[in-house]
Amino acid sequence: MSAEIGHFALIVAAVLALGQSVFPMAGAVRRHGALMALGGTLATGQFVFVAIAFGALTWAFVTSDFSVANVVQNSHSAKPLLYKITGVWGNHEGSMVLWCLILSLFGACVGWFGGNVAPGLRARVIAVQGMIGLAFLAFVLLTSNPFDRVNPMPPDGRGLNPILQDPGLAFHPPLLYLGYVGFSVTFAFAVAALLEGGVDAAWGRWVRPWALAAWSFLTLGIALGSWWAYYELGWGGFWFWDPVENASFMPWLVGTALLHSAIVAEKRDALKSWSILLAILTFSLSLLGTFLVRSGVLTSVHTFATDPERGLFILAILAVTIGGALVFYAWRAPALKGGGLFRPVSREGALIVNNLLMTVAALTVLFGTLYPLIVDALGLGKISVGPPYFNATFVPLMAPLILAMGIAPFLPWKRADLAGALDRLKLIVAVTIGAAAVVVFLEDRYSFAAALGIGLAVWAIGASAFELASRVRLFRAPFGESLRRTAAMPRSAWGMTLAHAAAGVVVAGITASSVWQTEIVRVMEPGDRADVAGYTVAFAGVQEVRVGNYLARRGRFTVSEGGAAVATLSPEKRIYLPQRTPTTEAAIRTTWFADLYIVLGDPHGEGGHAVRLYHNPLVPWIWIGAVLMFLGGMISLTDRRHRVGAPRRSVRPAPPQPAEA
Amino acid sequence: MRPKRRRLAFLSVGLVLLGVAVALVLTALEDGVTFFYTPSKVAANDVPAGQQFRLGGLVERGTRRNLGDGLSVAFRVTDCIHSLQVVYKGVLPDLFREGQGVVAIGRLETGGVFRADTILAKHDENYMPKDLADQLKEQGQWHADGGGKPCAEAKS
């Protein structure tokens, strides 16, 4: 029964989405207050009905209703409850319902928390959200119905891909979608502004909290995905430049640019039409990512069951959305009036540097991702573009970006003195050069990449710390005064400082773990020892265990440092029972400064096993940094200053204020 | 700066950056791109010696054996017409199985042996590398009923 309720709720949601795309738009054109107000109600209704559908699907999974095809293909009665629930979005159909749920949630949020947005603009934003919702609900209903029945009902399901039977599945897709889909709101704001034909500084203020929320979630979602791949796939790496990773990374790059250009739009009434273009591009890249993942045109580690019909449908949504928005942009944007004037060396100028580098970096990633398709389409052969390409294009673009990020908070608006800013930063410049030099001399093998990466990381963290110190006049004013200033610092300033320093933490983690990783592959007999980066790892043997729905060969390794035992690690090789699929579970010991990572391989001879041992210095910093970035975004969102002047006090996330150095 | 001049400056900086990016892309493409070949392509001597490429095909049944050091394995990769000897030192992926699709990244050595640095097998038992599936379709060897058996009867 739940399947029918869910299916019906999806149809109702689609009808409501249709109403949501028509009525508020008509109301905004005719300046009809009641029609405009209807938008918020319809958006709430759409959300409620998608939530009912999602609930019905979850119910079918939890109760193992094997009359539903989707449950049969992706679940099994013996699966732990957590994975029955997360299995709802561990497949194509269910994940699209989750996508629609989050999309309708954002639409409803514009209605609930958008009270301080001008009614005409808000109505148009809600209408655009309705159109996107309608497109995706139609996609689910017409090509990917999760409620299809099977007849006759099989006795049990086929089980969820074991690689997905991991707590990572509980958080990674929902967070990623909160980011991806969150940028639909900024897209809707951009299209609505083009429809209205005018953008003022208030537009920037309204867009920023949405961009900030979406960006924060996307950051966390990407980081969680990378962490999951790191511990689950057993390859010892955290990023593979896989097409699907790139698909999530491109919106992040352009979204980061948008986050910064919206500051200029709000503060200085400039870069407005550029911000609108970025808002369109960010969501377009989100849609492109969806298309790449679901259509199967590119090979990747993510294997959704692919279907050309679905690919075509998403391609159509993509073409209409991107094409429509860009044509509209070309038509209306020239009419948007430019605002505040500024010199090239200024806060605005630095933010433009950020924007251009982020966008160009996204372009090179896009090109590398699509190049195999282009070459294939031209009949020039089958190729793949690997990490060397991405590293060689991405790193040279990010290096100047991080340099600019350190200086930008010290540049005032309108016109600035670069030499003066560098003079204030001379201590940090010296520390940075010193750190890079130490790296050059420390390494027995000269590594330019390491010196550059560590230098940039020290620069980003140092400049952020210095920015904080000079803001509170640390050591220049009495300590009490500094303390008072610290307490009075706006949350948005804390957010910026934290996020910028976090970028340095991520760079340090990426650099150290890429350059100084130790990898040992060898056969170990019980009693054998291996030395890895100062640790001695002794292999005690394996035992067979049966846990829940899998069998495992569990290795026992004792790790000692300087003769003292510090840890016991138990990597596993598992066979999941319904499908007899093997998986590898790496065992990781982290000190927060480095990971010791052990993977158990195939047996060899009497009791011997192939073993891979990795020592990954600073690798946890990648995820610590990403979490700090997320926290920076969240702290900015809670900034109170922007709620002043709002018609009513609400829990609406408030936009942040940039730093005034 | 006046808006017009500012837009010009904005544009020219953007264009310069784009130029830098294009230069970066072109140099990076030289060693960032690996071609995909099947054993037939290799047999036809279409593959430049010493160049890294991706070899795709099926792991031929009954050809997998472990070499003396316990870490190296040898097996043959077939596309149902030709096959190629592959050696690999390292731990094979979980889903590496005889009769199933595989992609090996490495180089051809003198003597016609392919030395792989990386072996990819996907986390899906029906997985077939897309490039290989296309190739098999071209050759008329494609059987839609699953990746496991497209060439069960074929001799190589």
CATH topology of the domain at 1-165 in chain A: Four Helix Bundle (Hemerythrin (Met), subunit A)
What is the CA-CA span between the terminal residues of chain B? 72 Å
Tell me which protein chains meet in the greatest interface and how many residues each side has.
Answer: A-B, 53 and 44 residues
Task: Give the low-confidence spans of chain B.
Answer: 123-127, 143-149, 152-156
* Largest sheet features of chain B: 5 strands, mixed, barrel
Q: Could you give the order of strands across the largest sheet of chain B?
A: 2-4-5-7-6
Low-confidence stretches of chain A: 644-661
Write down the overall mean pLDDT of chain B: 76
Based on Cα principal axes, name the global outline of chain B: elongated
The CATH topology name of the largest domain in chain B reads: OB fold (Dihydrolipoamide Acetyltransferase, E2P)
- Give the class of chain A from helix and strand content and strand pairing: alpha+beta
Percent in strands of chain B: 25-35%
Give me the number of helical elements of chain A: 19
Helix content of chain B: 25-40%
| Spatial extent as radius of gyration of chain B | 21 Å
Global shape of chain A: globular
